Amino acid sequence: MTDLSRLLRILYQGPQGAPPGVVNPYKDERPDLDRPGAARQRRRNLEAYLEQVGRPRLVLLGEALGFRGGRFSGIAFTSERQLAGPPSCRLPWAESSPFRPTSRNPALWLEPSGSVVWDVLAGEARGVLLWNAFPWHPHGKTGPLSNRTPERSLLAANLRVLERLLEEVNGAQVLAVGRTAQAALAALGAEAPALRHPAHGGATLFRRQLRERLTC
């Protein structure tokens, strides 16, 4: 992959406007939820994952980081149990350092949507980049261990990371996982087919749609 240092600098700075109810996992830590040094470790996880991806031929763009996934792993559609859990749960490319968990959850978080995505990909990271239209964690009214869809205004104010990503992966096919991601791409003048999001009963359709794309 080309040099992503500028992209990562913008990402790590966090969303503009200090929006309420949004966590920047690459900078923010909560002593009750995060292990010491968690933000630094999430940056390491992401950067090591990007090395595994290499030059992407395909980008799967989701909505936002979820608390069971990227909020603690640092990687879209990926949970910390897939990075550092039991061997039966761990992704093949995450079997060595520097991947580490960052939450205080002794069982480690596992995201159902991420499990579906990686199952279709057969655990293979090379060439397929997982990312989000809003690459931070917006949580709901029930607290930090919840998720919410980023508001249109929040997406619009923070498209700079996605814009930079599209510049870096020029030539790769981009697939929107859900309508929120598709709308974010459209705001930048980029058209992309939308796959059904695997959450909320969409797993079967998502599997079929993605497999069709992977075999094209």
Could you please describe the fold and organization of this structure?
With 216 residues, the chain is an alpha/beta fold. The chain has helices at 5-13, 38-53, 70-73, 80-84, 112-120, 152-157, 160-168, 179-187, 203-214; strands at residues 22-23, 58-64, 128-134, 137-138, 173-177, 194-195. The strands form 2 sheets. Strands 3-2-5-6 form a 4-stranded parallel β-sheet. A two-stranded antiparallel sheet has the order 1-4.
Write the layout of secondary structure elements.
Blueprint: H1 5-13, E1 22-23, H2 38-53, E2 58-64, H3 70-73, H4 80-84, H5 112-120, E3 128-134, E4 137-138, H6 152-157, H7 160-168, E5 173-177, H8 179-187, E6 194-195, H9 203-214
Parallel strand pairs: 2-3, 2-5, 5-6
Antiparallel strand pairs: 1-4
Helix pairs in contact: 1-7, 5-9
What Rg do the Cα atoms give? 16 Å
Number of alpha- plus pi-helical segments: 9
Oligomeric description of these chains? single chain
Low-confidence stretches: none
Output the CATH homologous superfamily: Uracil-DNA glycosylase-like domain
- The CATH architecture assignment turns out to be 3-Layer(aba) Sandwich
Mean pLDDT: 95
Query: What is the CATH third-level topology name?
Result: Uracil-DNA Glycosylase, subunit E
